[in-house]
Amino acid sequence: MFGRSFTAPALLAGFAAVLNRLRADGHPQRVVVQRHAYSYDHPATTDAAARASIDPDRWSHLVLALSRRNIGRITVDVTVKDSAGRQVGRLAGVFAALPDEPLSGDKSA
């Protein structure tokens, strides 16, 4: 299996990390994917797992933006490793935290 199959789990790992951290910190925002880029390092010949890491400085910046504007974004790095621990891919995802209620002028909700 090569990297394309791991893009979705990596994106989900980043999304879940942001959403769960927001909820744990008491923020009601919803999370959307703004953009992402996946890099394929090696083919995976075994099972693999995606792990997201949130940089503390980036998190502080997001929390400050939420306190000022009730909206913000954060870049999250995700690594995908096979069962032997070899890195098979990397994802950099930008996730936006939006108000739980539609923004003014948003007719789609």
Question: In a nutshell, what does this entry contain?
Answer:
Helix content is 32%, strand content 37%. It is of the alpha+beta class. It starts with a helix and ends in an 11-residue tail after the last strand.
Radius of gyration: 15 Å
The major beta sheet can be summarized as: 4 strands, antiparallel
What topology, given as strand order, has the largest sheet? 1-4-3-2
Number of helices: 2
Would you identify the CATH architecture?
A: Roll
Helix content: 25-40%
List the helices and strands and how they pair.
Elements: H1 4-24, E1 30-40, E2 48-53, H2 56-69, E3 72-82, E4 87-98
Antiparallel strand pairs: 1-4, 2-3, 3-4
What does this structure look like?
This protein is an alpha+beta fold. It has helices spanning 4-24, 56-69, and strands at 30-40, 48-53, 72-82, 87-98. It has a 4-stranded antiparallel beta sheet with strand order 1-4-3-2. The longest helix is centred in the first third of the chain and has 21 residues, at 4-24. It starts with a helix and ends in an 11-residue tail after the last strand.
